[in-house]
Every structure is written in C-alpha cells, then in structure tokens.
What does this fold into?
Amino acid sequence: MRFGWLLASLMLTACAQTPLRGTGDLGIVIERANGRVAVVDTTAKSVLGRIDGLGDLSHASVVYGRDGRHAYVFGRDGGLTKVDILEQRIDKRVMQAGNSIGGSISQDGRLVVAQNYTPGGIKVFDAVTLELLAEVPTQSKVVGLVDLPGQKFAYALFDKGEIWVTDLSDPRQPRTEKYPAGLQPYDGLVTPDGRYYMAGLFGEDGIALLDTWRPELGVKKILQHYGKGEEKLPVFKMPHLRGWAVAGNQAYLPAIGRHEVLVVDKGNWQEAGRIAVKSQPVFVMARPDGRQVWVNFAHPDNSWVQVIDTLTGKVIKTLQPGKAILHMEFSPRGEHVWLSARDDHSVHIYDTQTFERVATLPAQSPSGIFFTSRAARMGF
Amino acid sequence: MRAALVLLSLLFSPLVSASEGAVSASDTIRLVRQDCGSCHGMSLQGGLGTPLTREALAGQSAEALAVIILHGKHGTAMPPWKSLLSATQAQWIAERLLEGFPEEKQP
It folds into this structure.
C-alpha cells in the first residue's frame, strides 16, 4: 500500500515535469550529414530535441502515422526508422534495402511502404511493428511513390518507363496493374483528392498522367511540347514533384531543364502558361491557401527563392535567405514558411505576408523539413 | 601520417577554375558530396545516378571520367558540368574518385 502511494506520487511528479501536449504544431528537420533529426515546435519556433542514430540521411524523407506522433524516416542507406517525436526516441528501426529514397503510408495508416533503388521495388511493412509483409520487385529504380485511396499505391519505374499501381487491400497478396508511361520518369505526385497520378519524364518532354478513377483509359501525356525545338539546359538537380502546387483550377510544376514554372489547367490538363523564374526550379510548393507558390532552385542558384502570386501569375518576391536552400515547408495554415539552408547550418523562418525573417534556428546541414500536418494529407 | 599530410595539402591547395579564380579543394569536395550527391548519393553509393565509389569505378581512367564530368553522358541524366567546373577541377575530382573520394570536413 505504501509502495503504491510512492509509485503514484512518483508518477504525478513525472507528469508535472513533462506536461501533456499535442503534436499538431510539431515537425522534423533532417540533419543530413549527422544521421540525426531535430524535433521542432512551429508555435514556439524552437528545437525541442534531437534524435540520433538514423544512418545515412542524404535524401531522406518522412511520412507520419495518423496519430501525428510517430514518424517514419526513410534513409538513403535503406534504413527505415520509426521515431516517437513526443518522447524523442527511436521506436523501431530496420535496414530494408541497400539504397532507398522514400516511402509512403496507407490510407488507414497501417502499412508503411518503402520505394527502393537497390534492389528495385517496393516493400510493405506493418506500421506498428515494421514487420515485412510483402514486396513487389520491379527490376528498376522506383520513384514517385504515393498513397491512393483504397489501400493502393502508385509509383513510377525510372528504368522501365512505367507507372505501376499496387493494391494492398490484402497486404500479403499485392495485386499490381502496370501502365506504359514514357522515358525515364524521375518523380511523381498525386493530386490532393487522390485521383490523378502524374510522373514527370526526364527522357522526353512531358508528364505522364493516370486518372486512377478510370485507369482503363491508360496513361495520357500532357505538356508534351514544352521544350520542343529549344536547346535544353543541363539539369544539375532533378526537380521534386511531391511539393505539388495547386491553386484554384491551376497546377504549378517545375519545368525540367528550363528556367520556368509550368502552369496547367486542371480541367483539361492543357498548358495554361509559363512563368519565368530565376533558375531551374527544384520544389514548386503552394502555400496551403493556394495564393502563393514558392520556388527554390538547383545548384548553382540554390541560395535564391522566388514567390509567385497565383492571382496575377507573376513573381512578386525574390529572396536570398541563405546558402543552399534545399527545402521549404509551410506551417499548417501557411502564415510562415520554414527554409532549410544547408550550407548556413540554419533553418530560416519567414512570414509569408511580409516576407520578413521571423526566426533562425541552428541545424547541422539541414535538408528536408516535415511537419505533422502531413499526417492527414494524401500523397504526403 | 603521410596520408594525413597529403590530405591536408589537398584540402588547402587551391584549384584553378576558369571563371572564378581559385577554388579551394574543400569547396570542391563539398560540391561533389552535396551536389553530385543529389543523384549519386552523399556517400557516393549511387542513387538515380550510378555509384562513384572506388570499387565501382575500378578500371576506368581519370581522363575518361573527367570527360564525362565536363561533357555529361548522352542518353542519361548526367549533365555536362563544364559551365561550373574547369578542366583542372574535373581532372582533380576524377583522380580523387578513383582513389576513394575524401570525406567532407564537418564544421
């Protein structure tokens, strides 16, 4: 009995020391050179702590469990680490491939899927235990993996030029449909409603579009002629499509090998315009309300960021926030944007209305920034 | 010890670039690890691009690699870097790759 009281009072003390909190304003910043992530608070604009031991995090990406507390970090070395951001510790970690690039989580949050370069293919894990449930070999590097409604996943095969859609309703018995897409798809995205999957093509002009509500129609190529007849610029960094910028009826995409952002009409998927920007875009990301689109650039112009006003289709702001801006992430409703400046070892936070810098946080070679608001978004 | 001295001298020896004058070896190491690394991996184990480890490149000549660095590789995503790197830098990178590329010094 006395022991029971002692235990209870100890527990109360523990509670008093770490007050309950939600995770809706938390996030992760990848510190790529150190195999470490920083857990950040977007309200206090501070680093809460760091989690070590995540392996090679060059080109790491993160998806969140629907509890907004557990994050799955995909490392380049094939490591898949489940971290608890509240307790700031590693919950589980497996080495699942030789060379990996990212992953995705199922609609119901129970399956985590990794996309791999070596060996090619996808692997399906139980989100709680990280037990391997199934794999789909592809004999190709897999890019652009996204989740779709109905426990499905879409992805593209760089070496085979195909889009595959795998149904994991029965996770141990994957069923896969394959569609020819075009030469060298380099990344993919899904529209926020989970309907259209797009794969950007490197080996030819254009984007492969699959209507997953009507897959029997097959892949349609859009923006097929955007670079035709013009000399292409060398591409020093592949653009990323996952930022997916949609504002109203228009989608904004990075042009490959050109200093342009392409605007597409979402009704008919025709080109609706091009916006000249400073250099080759890498991420083209819409503020959550869609009024602004923020763009960062490939080496050697990666110290710059430009902001497009989607109402006028014009660049309204050019910023030079720091050295090697690798990624951008908006606060859940977009009043701030966080920018990772790899070579300044800093994360800069800007007000998206005034374009003033409101804070700078230290981080070692920061790359990706991932807030828990992604937990509820399809394709993130 | 000798290896360390060689590495030190590598780190501080200026490389001459066509456009920008002297470029330090540590800047070039950073460029290879970070920017080439966006396709080839920071550890150079490969990614969308091929691995660039000493083992993966065994048997190739530095001259041939320098040509690929400067002019790119047709039909692949490897771009020509000649607008950003001098022939001297490309040759230096190629030679270092064949020996096993030096790690970036952490600040």
